[in-house]
């Protein structure tokens, strides 16, 4: 009876130190691991025979025990604005999306960390698809590896193309912490992609204990999905808030700031028509972020607000705030001394904009049932009406408008 064939090691999933240790088990020195690491990540080479400065004996071992495995590409779509979206097959009926966003002064890749997402945010298409599994570190890095080296060949360039990576694709990165950290280390390593900590961003819905862990291991830039100024409303929009409410989340953000590569934390705020976009909500948001009644201006410099126009998707039951409402909301924040930007929508014609990534997910969490419950108007309407007031001059927000599909 023959013994089972050993599974080959996926080298894309090993950070530099892990690769050094693995090569040591083969009897190879550290510099050989570094050479191999550079061939894979800096040059995008998957064929061990093409790694000309590696000893033949090492190449033979690599053929026998390892692989550089790209993710199969199921589809590629190119937006009229130059945004590119890839759909990658990760097996067992699951597929994840990554998005390349070119701009004049940067080129950003939005990377997925899970097949689906278990958080279930009301305004996110991925959450409506449910959750299947975490991606491996190899599958996370494979998105960057494919995008970087495909684009270099396509544009006939030798120098680096992708300047920024945001973990804002499918999934909650901090729920996949063990696989996220090696991937981040490879992104930052000068022998691989050489990105600075300022140019790699992890987005989280607010898992406070894991934010603390990230600050001690790989403190890259942090973006927090906030979306509401009160617990009552955030409970409805971001169900994780029931476990880690705003007071706990704000405390974790301020702790993270001590280790962050920038002197501020970014807060993401999806603008939902009649739900979280009134002047009352804006003033409550100032008070929340300042940590003082009335919003002490001197304590608002630690954060940056990124207002995101909601990108509709089927069955969300939500609408995007009107442009003039977004600007009025932003003005309240700016007058309080909070740096505020309105995100430009990119790739919405190919469903590649923020909140629209869906891929294909074999859901194990009964997301459709949960989302149908969350779409009941009563709970969200009550949360909207319970928005905290910050002063007697506060005007009531507009009535909440919920769309339903009969």
TrEMBL record:
Primary subcellular site in the record, as a coarse category: cytoplasm
Protein name: Dual-specificity RNA methyltransferase RlmN
PROSITE patterns per the UniProt record, alphabetical: RADICAL_SAM
Gene Ontology molecular-function annotations: 4 iron, 4 sulfur cluster binding; metal ion binding; rRNA (adenine(2503)-C2-)-methyltransferase activity; rRNA binding; tRNA (adenine(37)-C2)-methyltransferase activity; tRNA binding
Family that this chain belongs to: Belongs to the radical SAM superfamily. RlmN family.
Record keywords, A-Z: 4Fe-4S, Cytoplasm, Disulfide bond, Iron, Iron-sulfur, Metal-binding, Methyltransferase, rRNA processing, S-adenosyl-L-methionine, Transferase, tRNA processing
Function noted in UniProt: Specifically methylates position 2 of adenine 2503 in 23S rRNA and position 2 of adenine 37 in tRNAs. m2A2503 modification seems to play a crucial role in the proofreading step occurring at the peptidyl transferase center and thus would serve to optimize ribosomal fidelity.
HAMAP family: RNA_methyltr_RlmN
Subcellular location: Cytoplasm
More info: Reaction proceeds by a ping-pong mechanism involving intermediate methylation of a conserved cysteine residue.
Cofactor note text: Binds 1 [4Fe-4S] cluster. The cluster is coordinated with 3 cysteines and an exchangeable S-adenosyl-L-methionine.
Enzyme Commission designation: 2.1.1.192
Domain Radical SAM core: 103-349
Enzyme class (EC, first level): transferase
PANTHER family associated with the record: 23S RRNA METHYLTRANSFERASE, RADICAL SAM CORE DOMAIN-CONTAINING PROTEIN
Record-level GO cellular component terms: cytoplasm
Signal peptide boundaries: none
Active site: 97, 354
Entry binding sites for S-adenosyl-L-methionine: 171-172, 203, 225-227, 311
């Amino acid at each position: 009876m023959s013994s089972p064939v050993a599974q080959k090691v996926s080298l894309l999933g090993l950070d530099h130190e892990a690769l050094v240790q693995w090569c040591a088990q083969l009897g190879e020195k550290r510099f050989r691991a570094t050479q191999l690491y550079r061939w894979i990540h800096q040059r995008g080479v998957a064929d061990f025979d093409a790694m000309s400065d590696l000893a033949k004996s090492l190449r033979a071992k690599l053929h026998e025990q390892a692989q550089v495995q790209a993710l199969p590409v199921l589809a590629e779509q190119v937006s009229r604005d130059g945004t590119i979206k890839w759909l990658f097959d990760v097996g067992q009926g699951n597929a994840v999306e990554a998005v390349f966003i070119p701009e004049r002064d940067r080129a950003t890749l939005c990377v997925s960390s899970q097949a689906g997402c278990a958080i279930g945010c009301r305004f996110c298409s991925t959450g409506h698809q449910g959750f299947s599994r975490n991606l491996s570190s190899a599958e996370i890095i494979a998105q960057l590896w494919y995008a970087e080296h495909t684009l270099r060949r396509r544009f006939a360039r030798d120098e680096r193309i992708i300047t920024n990576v945001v973990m804002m694709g499918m999934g909650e990165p901090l729920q996949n912490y063990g696989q996220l950290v090696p991937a981040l280390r490879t992104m930052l390593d000068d022998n691989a992609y050489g990105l600075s900590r300022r140019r790699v961003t992890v987005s989280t819905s607010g898992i406070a204990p894991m934010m603390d862990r990230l600050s001690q291991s790989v403190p890259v830039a942090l973006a927090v999905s906030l979306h509401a100024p009160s617990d009552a409303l955030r409970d409805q929009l971001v169900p994780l808030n029931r476990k880690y409410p705003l007071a706990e989340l704000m405390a974790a953000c301020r702790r993270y700031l001590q280790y962050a590569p920038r002197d501020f934390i970014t807060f993401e705020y999806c603008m939902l028509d009649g739900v979280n976009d009134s002047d009352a909500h804006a003033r409550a948001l100032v008070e929340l972020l300042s940590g003082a009644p009335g919003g002490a201006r001197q304590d608002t410099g630690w954060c940056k607000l990124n207002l995101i126009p909601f990108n509709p998707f089927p069955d969300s039951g939500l609408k995007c705030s009107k442009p003039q409402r977004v600007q009025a909301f932003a003005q309240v924040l700016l007058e309080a001394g909070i740096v505020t930007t309105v995100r430009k929508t990119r790739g919405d014609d190919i469903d590649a904009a923020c909140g629209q990534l869906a891929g294909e997910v074999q859901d194990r969490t009964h997301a459709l049932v949960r989302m149908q419950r969350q779409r009941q108007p009563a709970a969200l309407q009550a949360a909207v009406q319970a928005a905290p007031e910050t002063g007697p001059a506060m005007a009531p927000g507009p009535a909440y408008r919920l769309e339903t599909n009969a």
